[in-house]
């Protein structure tokens, strides 16, 4: 089997990704964030250009179905900035959608995910490269079980990875029990996001033991209270033997968090986070986390 990463401009070899922000957003809108939407194409282009100037080469956009991901704009942004982009299918928590939208997906959610992964997102020609779903705060509700069951079915059908939003960093073990236990998804096909927001080293080590990927996706304005603990958590996981399970991202969710709007944004990952981690882990491991690991985590086995 030939392994590849599915980008908005087509499939590439995993090693072609380069320095990668493994969890971010160029576009995102939700009724939970009125007036703070990421919906400005010019700002998205400027943010990508700033990331590229800082040494970045690829960004994985986790914005899923129905949240303003602007898939049609991604190929041109990728070409214009030289930054490789991945687009997600999937579904977030119910609070981000209207009841009417969710009702229209009943009975066909896995089919929608598979279609966007293989045939393309409607009217765009862009094929998704990952499935994004979400847990709840210390719990898995009926919506979570529905979306994760559909994600597992789509992952089995396509080989695509499943990226999971952990609400405030919680519920990692419950998510793994469902996805990797009940639904039989291989651990290395699951990416847990936001672990830095609940800095519990015991949970992090147990999660890593499942073989899943651990995404530490800060800094941000909203989660600065825990972002500063991330280097210690990453070092502890590496020392515990889980250095090969780590990913890094920024998770820019609101307009004010972009660097071009006064926030830390994507470049901060390379300007400030990378040097801090080099001091903790050494340059060689940090380079692998930023380059080799994303290619492995988001790789799909050709069939």
From TrEMBL:
Zn(2+) 1 binds at residues 23, 25, 132, 251. GO terms for molecular function: hydrolase activity; zinc ion binding. The modification N6-carboxylysine is found at residue 132. InterPro entries: Metal_Hydrolase, Phosphotriesterase. Its cofactor is a divalent metal cation. Keywords: Hydrolase, Metal-binding. Zn(2+) 2 binds at residues 132, 165, 194. It comes from the Bacteria. The keyword Transmembrane does not apply. Binds 2 divalent metal cations per subunit. The keyword RNA-binding does not apply. Belongs to the metallo-dependent hydrolases superfamily. Phosphotriesterase family. This is Phosphotriesterase.
